[in-house]
Design a protein that fits this description.
It comes from Cohnella pontilimi. Pfam families: CxxCxxCC. InterPro entries: Puta_zinc/iron-chelating_dom. By secondary structure, this protein is α+β, with helices and mostly antiparallel strands. It is built from 5 helices and 4 strands. The strands form 2 sheets. It has a two-stranded antiparallel ribbon with strand order 1-4. The longest helix is centred in the first third of the chain and has 12 residues, at 25-36. The protein is globular. The structure holds iron/sulfur cluster (2 copies). One iron/sulfur cluster is lined by residues 11-17, 79-80, 87, 89.
Length: 135
């Protein structure tokens, strides 16, 4: 018989979790680099998309995907696998305690101190296309 948590994580790209994501200075740099590398037409297309209140400006609503996937913040990477950030459609997944998830992120991305995790803004709140383009 299969163990209880053997069912894989199934993300159907509903993009509901792409909202109100705090970002650190280092993550913001990576995001800005990814935006600078985009063709202007893509920026224009993303900027023109209609989003719900609080939705991340980097979610490509039309294609239901993250427009900066390789540069996405740690919260986006750990969403669904960590305490306080469980995907409502994948409640069968075993989640990490918050402190453990944070430690995993710090190790994987080379964050040296908890201060490096200080948010400089929140995607979908104070970080919008207006603020990104005008930077
Ligand atoms: S992780 Fe969950 S909430 Fe986020 S897009 Fe996938 S199914 Fe939707
Ligand atoms: S950065 Fe990407 S994965 Fe993270 S909330 Fe925005 S669109 Fe979603």
């Amino acid at each position: 018989m299969a163990p209880p948590n053997s069912k894989p994580f199934l993300c159907d790209n509903c993009i509901e979790c792409c909202a109100n994501v705090p970002v650190t200075a280092k993550e913001m740099q990576a995001i800005e680099g990814a935006i600078r590398a985009m063709p202007q037409e893509q920026i224009d297309r993303l900027q023109a998309q209609k989003r719900k209140d609080g939705a991340c400006p980097l979610v490509d609503v039309e294609n239901k995907r993250c427009a900066v996937y390789e540069a996405r913040p740690w919260i986006c990477r750990l969403f669904g696998y960590m305490e306080q950030m469980q995907c409502p459609y994948n409640t069968h997944i075993e989640i990490l305690p918050f402190a453990e998830g944070q430690k995993k992120f710090m190790t994987e991305l080379g964050v040296r101190s908890p201060e490096d995790l200080q948010a400089v803004g929140v995607l979908g709140q104070d970080i919008t296309w207006e603020s990104l383009v005008l930077r």
